[in-house]
């Protein structure tokens, strides 16, 4: 389903998407460079990049969860909507799709809340918050990426639900759903 965000959310969503893309590009390039360097150091120079796993972990969490948020916005994340392949009635397909999105929003809200509690628990332990062994990187940094990613996924899924309910069942909706794979099964 195409996500046509109207005012007043259009500008903030564009800013969020630009920030997400910057984080995704930075983390992807960083991880690719680090793993390339590790291979070169290990197999060419017989050396090791000391405790690189600790800071790579932070970038990986941010990459995975912000990438999940980007997938939620684009509606390109993996789905198993095989029921719509059997249903022929447009209104029933629309109802099933929006019920599914509604359930995704509920699950996202619960996961976002748990993410909030996770970050809050770390922040409450300051200055004795848990850190990595070697570089003393606070655990709150990767956990913040998890929390922000979950909140963004829930936000974008909520926008999809709003747009789906606003548009209602139509042939245009059905064609868009078929194009994204939602209405054509797995």
Task: Tell the overall outline.
Answer: elongated
Low-confidence stretches: 182-186
Strand content: under 5%
Domain module tally: 1
What is the alpha-carbon Rg in Å? 20 Å
Tell me, rounded to a whole number, the average pLDDT: 90
The residue fraction in helices comes out at over 70%
Distance between the termini: 16 Å
SSE layout:
Blueprint: H1 10-43, H2 52-74, H3 83-86, H4 90-124, H5 140-167, H6 171-180
Helix pairs in contact: 1-2, 2-5, 4-5
Could you write a compact summary of the structure shown?
This protein has helices spanning 10-43, 52-74, 83-86, 90-124, 140-167, 171-180. The protein is an all-alpha fold.
Describe the protein in words:
With 186 residues, this protein is mostly helical. It has one domain (10-180). Helix content is 72%, strand content 0%. It has six helices and no strands. The protein has helices at residues 10-43, 52-74, 83-86, 90-124, 140-167, 171-180. The longest helix has 35 residues, at 90-124.
Key descriptive features of the protein:
186 residues; mainly alpha; disordered C terminus; elongated
